[in-house]
Each structure stands twice: as C-alpha cells, then as structure tokens.
Design brief:
By secondary structure, this protein is mainly β. Strands 4, 5, 6, 8, 10, 11, 12, 13, 14 and 16 form a ten-stranded mixed beta sheet that branches. The chain has one helix and 16 strands.
C-alpha cells in the first residue's frame, strides 16, 4: 500500500464546538468525541481502524492511523488562512507560499493547515478534507456514488465548526461478495475568536485534487451542491462517484470560506451571511 501524492500535510489538533446551527446539509450527526494528539476532535462514526501494513478488507474511508503524511486519517478535515492566496493546488498543499505573511503561522517548511485557527475579520480560509478508500490495494474494491458534503454554521459564533462528510453507497462490500450499504464519515475543523463573527462559503471555490489533477494544477471543480443534501460527486479520472481502494486513487476536497466580525448592536446580528461573489476576495475562482 504505497503512499501517494507526496504532499506536506498538517497534523490535526483542535477543540470541540457546541451549540452550532447547520444550514444546507442535514446529515444526521451522531458524533463521537475522541482524544487525538493533544486536543479533542469531533469525528465519526466510531469504526474499525487500520494501518499501512494491515489495510481494510472491505470498502471504508479514512481509517488508517499511521498514514505517513497525515497521521490518523479519522481527523481528515483541516483548515488554513488563505487570505490573499490563489485558490489552487499549491495553496492546498499547506506549504508556505512565496511572499506569504507569517500571521503567526508555523515555521517555514511546516504545514499551514491545522484543526483550529483564529477567525480574523475579512480573512479567507481554505478547508481541506482527505478522501481515501482504505481497502487493500490488491482487492481493487470500488466505492460507488462517493459524495462530499460541507456543513457551514449559520448565525453568530465565537467557535464555528465547519464539517466535512464523505458518503458512499457500498461501504462494507468486500471481495468475497458481501453486500455493502450506504454510510457516511465525518470530521470537522474550527474557527475561533474572542469576538462574535459569521462565516460563509465563497461560491464556486470547491476543488478536488488527486493523481489525475494534482496539487500542481487547479484540480477538478466541485459544485456548491456540496453544501446541500445533494452533495458533490467525487471520482478519479472524472467526477462519476467511483473511487477505487488504495492511496493512488485518494484525493483532497477543498473550499473557501470568509469571516466577518459582527457588532451585537447591528440589526442583522443574527442573520446568516449572504452568498458573496469571488471578486471582493481577490481569490482566483
């Protein structure tokens, strides 16, 4: 089971968020709290885990706990400040960009992604999710109707949990003929601040990177339907919902959000952010 895409990835560390209202995607969330690294992450469902030496024997997602690039894949959603950066593969690697301001980021060479970042007024953030069918490469098991969903909290927050969910129709299917069933897998990243803020999707910024369109490209476009019950289809050579087992066929879904600080005296204090165009953000759609 050879690792693929060779990217520098962030190690997820974060804190749970509570009392969040989710718009669009109505996935029934039965989240399981688990201590990962030095923080507490919110991911689910509770599922069997695997290692590089002993991958899964049936279709499942993000279950490797010793991924050489990502660590524990169950914490598969991370976030970075992408203000002033292009919405492109190089930004999605998490490596420092040429001329990128420090903004309290890790030292050069370290990933800019983490599980939790400070929310700053008018800043743009990239959310990234690892998509990996962790069944053994030799089994050549293909997950069908694989979709990605993004849940972005509405209303005012001081700790906003942005959740990514992967679903497929035939999880548990194996080489012996066992019939799979629909399942979903989720994790989250956080934006936090001492001051209240709202956060919204920047429309048209969804991307999917894999070994067909890697981080040297602008990836495959992902529809804004990822923020609805429909979700966005993923794939390999095309976004047809089919992802085979093994790192070779894995990928990363990304999208951009923007933060706006709010004043409690504002009459729109409890209103969700309105959809916004790309142009005000100086982001290449």
């Amino acid at each position: 089971m050879a690792a693929g895409m060779g990217m520098v990835l962030g190690q997820p560390v974060g804190l749970p968020g509570d009392n969040l209202i989710f718009g669009g995607f109505k996935e029934h969330i039965k989240s399981v709290r688990r201590k990962l690294h030095d923080g507490i992450c919110l991911w689910g469902p509770d599922r069997e885990t695997h290692t590089m030496a002993n991958p899964a024997r049936s279709i499942t997602f993000d279950t490797i706990t010793d991924d050489p690039q990502f660590g524990d894949e169950r914490a598969f959603v991370v976030i970075r400040d992408a203000t002033g950066l292009p919405n492109s593969g190089p930004t999605a690697t998490g490596r420092p960009m040429s001329g990128e301001p420090a903004n309290g980021s890790p030292a050069d060479g370290a990933s800019r992604f983490s599980n939790s970042v400070e929310a700053i007024d008018d800043h743009v953030y990239m959310v990234r999710a690892l998509i990996h069918n962790t069944a053994a490469e030799s089994l050549q098991l293909v997950a069908r109707n694989v979709r990605f969903y993004a849940a972005i909290p509405t209303g005012v927050n001081t700790d906003a949990m942005v959740q990514g969910t992967i679903s497929a129709d035939n999880c548990g299917e194996d080489a012996s003929g066992a019939v799979g069933k629909p399942m979903s897998f989720w994790d989250e990243a956080h934006l936090h601040s001492d001051s209240p803020f709202i956060v919204g999707l920047i429309p048209g910024t969804g991307r999917y990177y894999n070994n067909v369109r890697d981080f040297t490209t602008d990836g495959f476009p992902l529809s804004d339907s990822m923020c609805t019950n429909e979700g966005a289809l993923l794939g390999y050579e095309q976004m047809d919902g089919r992802i085979q087992s093994c790192f070779q066929y894995s990928g990363y879904a990304t999208f951009l959000v923007r933060v706006r600080m709010v004043n409690p005296s504002d009459p729109n204090y409890n209103m969700p952010p309105k959809p916004v165009s790309i142009n005000p953000y100086d982001i290449d759609a």
